[in-house]
């Protein structure tokens, strides 16, 4: 199991210092939540800040685009070489538009991801499974950190894990929102590979201990 840290709940003005600290922790990715104020009712940062983050971050970047126009952002982050860029299924009007963006990412050398809102049925995502490297199941409504894990999302997670086995796909399953040691354990037991930790880790009095608790869980 791997861990990404969402920097959403870190005050923007202390970002550089906090990233330096997190570089030393046992995490695998920096998870960057990009929000445009349209796709979700919140705004975070854009390409310029991500470029600054890339200069100080020692871990690969996992960019989560909660935006109406993913193409615009993708063009602008190519030169910081993120490992994953994930776009939301719900941001597109047609399946073809989803395929086009996934292909664009792959041809740029970025592993493409598709993110799924808690209320989106897994069935809608089935056509794209062979084209994605990461499937990001949102476990809260996207937009804000610090919300509670929605347990019903385990149905989608189970479905994605079972299709992966049935059709021999090789995507990883990532979860994002309300993840802590308990909800993280549930997810890993149901087939999840990457846990995104936001407020649980960033606001923990002892980050090392919080990470140890999460790392202690094993898949059944
Ligand atoms: C929500 C974001 C998440 C989230 C994680 O829209 O994508 O990355 O902020 O934060 P917590 O773990 O606090 O829910
Ligand atoms: Zn996220």
From TrEMBL:
Cofactor or coenzyme needed: Co(2+); Fe(2+); Mn(2+); Zn(2+)
Coiled coil: none
Top enzyme category: isomerase
Record's catalysed reaction(s): D-ribulose 5-phosphate = D-xylulose 5-phosphate
Xref: Gene3D superfamilies: Aldolase class I
Domain of life: Bacteria
Family matches, as InterPro entries: Aldolase_TIM (IPR013785), Ribul_P_3_epim (IPR026019), Ribul_P_3_epim-like (IPR000056), RibuloseP-bd_barrel (IPR011060)
Pfam families: Ribul_P_3_epim
Family statement drawn from the similarity comment of this UniProt entry: Belongs to the ribulose-phosphate 3-epimerase family.
Name under which the protein is recorded: Ribulose-phosphate 3-epimerase
């Amino acid at each position: 199991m791997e861990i990404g840290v969402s920097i959403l709940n870190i005050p923007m003005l202390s970002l550089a210092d906090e990233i330096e600290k997190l570089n030393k922790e046992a995490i695998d990715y920096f998870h960057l939540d990009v929000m445009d104020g349209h796709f979700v009712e919140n705004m975070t940062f854009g390409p310029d800040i991500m470029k600054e983050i890339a200069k100080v971050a020692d871990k690969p970047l996992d960019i989560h685009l909660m935006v109406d126009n993913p193409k615009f952002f993708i063009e602008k982050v190519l030169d910081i070489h993120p490992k994953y860029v994930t776009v939301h299924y719900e941001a597109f009007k047609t399946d073809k538009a989803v395929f086009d963006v996934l292909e664009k990412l792959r041809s740029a050398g970025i592993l493409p991801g598709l993110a799924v809102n808690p209320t989106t049925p897994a069935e809608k995502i089935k056509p794209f499974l062979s084209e994605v490297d990461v499937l990001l199941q949102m476990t809260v409504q996207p937009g804000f950190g610090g919300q509670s894990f929605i347990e019903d999302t385990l149905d989608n997670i189970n479905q994605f894990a079972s299709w992966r086995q049935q059709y021999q796909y090789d995507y990883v399953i990532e979860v994002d929102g309300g993840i802590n040691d308990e909800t993280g354990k549930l997810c890993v037991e149901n087939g999840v590979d990457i846990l995104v930790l936001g407020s649980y880790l960033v606001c923990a009095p002892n980050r090392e201990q919080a990470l140890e608790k999460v790392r202690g869980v094993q898949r059944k």
